[in-house]
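BUG: 3D viewer hangs when loading the predicted structure for this chain

Environment: internal workstation, default settings.
Expected: structure renders.
Actual: progress bar stalls at 90%.

Input used:
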Amino acid sequence: MKFTIPLRPVTKKNHQQIRRNHKTGNPYIAQSDAYQEYERQCELLIPAEYKQQIDRPVIVKAVYYMPQARRVDITNLDSALHDVLVKAGVLKDDSSLSPRIVVGTDGSRVKVDRNRPRTEVEITEAGE
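C-alpha cells produced before the viewer hung:
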C-alpha cells in the first residue's frame, strides 16, 4: 500500500512541552499544539481505504521531503509517522504487543523539496 501525506514532516521529540495537571499540579510532558494539529491533519489526509488496523508484521518505508536541507533525525521522523499511522487507524497499536507490528523501516530516507514538502509512505508485509 502506498500513499502520500502532503504536509511538512514533523517530529514529536522536538515539539514537547512540560505542562501542569490542573487538578494535581503535577508536571507532565505533552505534545505541542503544532504537533497535535499535524497529527489531526494527517488523520484527515490518509485515505479511508488504508485505515485497516493492520496487525501483522510490516515494513514501513517512508521518504520524507523536507523544505530545507537541514539535518534531521530520521528515527524521530519514523517514530512520529508510526504514531500517526496508529492514531489514523492504519496500524494497530503495538505498544503492548510482542512481536512488534512495524519490524523495519528499510529504505526510509530524507530528501529536500522546497516547493512540496511531504511524506511518501509505503507499507509492505514483512517477508514479501
